Amino acid sequence: MRYQTKGTCSTAIDIEIKEGVIESVKFIGGCNGNLQGIAALVKGMAPEEAISRLKGIRCGFKSTSCPDQLARALESMI
Question: What class is the 2-77 domain?
Fold first, then answer.
């Protein structure tokens, strides 16, 4: 599934969930190294666990962040 982000440097997130586990995450745009790290950390995790860890994280003065957008994307998938 492709999720169009809002309010972040990344413009979209491609997410694949198989059998209730995050199989892959790829951010389009944004801070490449940091986002690759986030993607690697959530791989193999249940979406609910990733949501509980990432939801509400802010980037500077923005009301959201790339991790928060990932949590929102996962919420829309489950």
Answer: alpha beta
